[in-house]
Design goal:
With 250 residues, the chain is mainly α. It is 71% helix and 2% strand. The protein has ten helices and two strands; from the N terminus they run E-H-H-H-H-E-H-H-H-H-H-H. It has a two-stranded parallel ribbon. Helix 3 packs parallel to helix 7 and helix 7 packs antiparallel against helix 10. The chain is globular and about 50 Å long. It starts with a strand and ends with a helix. The relative contact order is 0.16.
Length: 250
Amino acid sequence: MLYIHNMTQDEKLPVSAYSKVYGFYATLGILLGIIALWMLLQILIETLFLWLFSGAADHPPAGRASLLLALVYIVPGMLVLYLVAVLSKRKNPSIPEYLALRRMKFTRYVLWVVAFGALAVAMDWFCHLTGRLLGSEVLYQAVAGGRYRPLLFTAVLFAAPVIEEVIFRGFAYRGLSNTKYGPAPAILITSLIWALIHAFVYDAVLIAMIFCAGIVLGIARMRLKSIYPTIVMHSAMNLIALVQITYVIV
């Protein structure tokens, strides 16, 4: 469960509370461990799914590709979110404070969403013009058909942005920015790792694009002092990618 907290004070914790923030190296180690666990759970879900449908007439289950991807996004992601919440609470009783889950009016960050959406459109059209896929072949297969597409769209547009932003721009940013160098290392490191976890389905050019998108999200996190705007921006980027994929398929 994601807790909600009003933005009533500056993001920076009081000096007395700062000792309760994970340090730079501790945060980096925890982040890498969370990613490893996250990927392992995704592999287990996919393996179990394919085993259950190994005798199906449509194996590999093309018609169920949308269900498979949705489960791979949602189930491990919910478990990882719970782990992040537990780890955050060990250092700060206020989970929303630690993860920067603070509500703010949409009008305060609408220009960020529009600008980031324009960047996403430009990147997606570049991929289209250069013949690059915006995702794995399974994703195209899942978007093309299947009665589970609404569940897939829910996972891509809502679950994935929430999970990834809480992990990277929420938990990881908080600890990695707890240095004398400020938020710059946090923005660079979270963007790099976020880009690299997509290396299984993207080429080097697309990974570089994702890294740049991560930099923008990190700057938004720094300037707006909340991850709600970055969640909306991330969701908008995924929506634009889905529209582009649908356009290519049609």
